[in-house]
Amino acid sequence: MACKKRCSSRQTKWALIGSASVVLVFAFGMVLSFVLQQRTQPGCEQEAACRPDADMLDYLQSLGQISQRDGLLVTWYHAANSQKEMGAALSSNAMVLEADVTIEGLNTVNETGVPVMAHPPAIYSDNTLQQWLEAVLAFSQKGIKLDFKSLKAVGPSLALLRRLTEDGRVRRPVWINADILRGPNVPISIEVNATQFLALVQENYPEATLSPGWTTLYVPLFPNRTYTRAMVEKMQGLVGALPQKVTFPVRAVMVRAAWPHFSWLLGQSQRYSLTLWQGASDPVSVDDLLYVRDNSASHQVYYDLFEPVLLEDMLELCRALWQPVSFQLHAGLLGQNTAGVVARLLAASPRATVTVEHSPLRGNYASVRAALLAARAMDKTRIYYRLPRSYREDLLADVGRN
Ligand SMILES: *[C@@H]1O[C@H](CO)[C@@H](O)[C@H](O)[C@H]1NC(C)=O
Ligand SMILES: *[C@@H]1O[C@H](CO)[C@@H](O)[C@H](O)[C@H]1NC(C)=O
Ligand SMILES: *[C@@H]1O[C@H](CO)[C@@H](O)[C@H](O)[C@H]1NC(C)=O
After folding, report:
1. So where does this one cross the membrane (predicted)?
2. Cβ(224) to ligand 2 under 6 A?
3. In testing the pocket of ligand 3, which one of 217, 222, 259 has its CB within 8 Å of the most ligand atoms?
């Protein structure tokens, strides 16, 4: 009996010491990770670029994450909703996190009014918006894009953002997305009420960049059905007079066919950009994306694409195009595939030119004859030659013969 009492008090003591150490170690870990975070990530230093209403490209450039104001350089993480997904997103290289907000138990008897991170049809989540924001703001510098499928979630979410912003904690751009107009191939009205959505943002969180979109359905049977001029003009009517930056989410697979409308829209304000997005099974081609890129400024379009390879191909082609628009190729290195390489470069942009060069030190005319002739056969106006005079004469003679 005596022992029982003494032992239990000893146990209590050890338990107390034990939990105190756990708390200490945890606190130490938190401080350390915070310090490391500060060390490894240069803070956002240009004040104007570190605000919720800042331009995303300015922000990422001020962090040194992108080298120039080009939407193609921005990388995205999708549906970073559950604790697990959020953790993966936070430890990824993605520059901007996209996540979906709904109300816990939406439209059931269990509805609580608490914004949680879930994509419809899910209405429950192990992650509330508050937890999400706390984690993302504390442990990353990633940009934030919140997607709302229901108007009910907008008010309470903006109130949370308001509080955190007033505490000085939201030092990065925040995008607020909702589909507010009916778009291509959608037979029924499922969009978020536009006037109410826009009013909520103006009243509660005017700092946000608006991302107002159209509901869409892609029907492979009718690939030509796309956004109409009326849809695009209606959007301009809604947001044309607002003060915020606006980025319009556009389904990439349908953008080319509607390009005249989106080109018109981009021309309506300096505040506008497009965010091209891809449905999981949408057949988006590099060709379509290059078309958009060639017909817009690089800061006007973001590429939030499902297939990573698509973005890699775009980057590869455009990396060359950022520098001089003229490609310098060494004839001796072109090998068997001259026509393919040259065609690809010329197709990358109507502005692209190719200069094929060769030095006699790298081999005689015969060694590059096939490559030069292949290039010449591809195009006569956009391919130039930097060759020793005798090689040039030989090439002209060969071309004349063929
Ligand atoms: C509400 O919550 C209860 C308890 O968690 C659950 O059993 C019930 O299925 C929920 N009702 C609806 C409509 O989701
Ligand atoms: C959106 O909400 C407003 C205000 O409640 C209402 O007047 C309007 O009819 C709604 N618009 C649509 C398209 O339902
Ligand atoms: C799409 O193509 C089909 C078949 O060519 C044509 O009948 C239809 O009118 C086109 N639709 C649009 C919106 O251009």
Report:
1. 14-36
2. no
3. 222
User: What is the residue whose two structure tokens read 């030095």?
Assistant: 359
Q: How far apart are CA 363 and CA 388, in angstroms?
A: 12
- In the numeric block, the tokens 């909702």 are attached to 178
Q: Which secondary structure element, helix H or strand E, spans residue 116, and what is its range?
A: strand 115-117
Report the pLDDT averaged over residues 264-288.
93
Residue whose CA is closest, atom 9 of ligand 2? Answer: 193
Average pLDDT over residues 186-201: 97
Cβ atoms within 10 A of the Cβ of 100, count? 23
Whether residue 138 contacts residue 88, with contact meaning beta carbons closer than 8 Å, is answered with no
Q: Mean pLDDT across the stretch 335-357?
A: 76
CA 48, 51, 52, 58 torsion-angle sign: positive
List all residues 6 or more positions away from 194 whose beta carbon is below 8 Å from its beta carbon: 180, 181, 212, 238
pLDDT of residue 130: 98
Cβ of residue 9 lying under 6 Å from some atom of ligand 1: no
**Residue 275 buriedness (CB in 10 A; 0-12 / 13-18 / 19+):** buried
The per-residue pLDDT of the chain, averaged, comes to 87
Q: Which stretch, 25-29, 105-109, 307-311, has highest mean pLDDT?
A: 105-109
Provide the 8-state DSSP code for 199: H
- Ligand 2 pocket residue status of 193, Cβ below 6 Å: yes
CA angle 59, 61, 67 (to 5 degrees): 160
CA dist 174 → 113, 167, 297 (Å)? 22, 15, 22
First to last CA, the chain: 110
Please report the beta strands in 183-232, taking only residues with DSSP state E, as ranges in sequence order. Answer: 209-215
CB atoms within 10 A of CB 307: 13
Q: Would the CA dihedral through 136, 138, 142, 145 be positive or negative?
A: positive
Contact 368, 345 (CB under 8 A): no
Which residues partner with 354 through β-bridges? 327, 383
Task: Report the distance separating Cα 312 and Cα 4, nearest Å.
Answer: 69
Looking at residues 373-383, what average pLDDT do you find? Answer: 86
356, β-bridge pairs: 329, 385
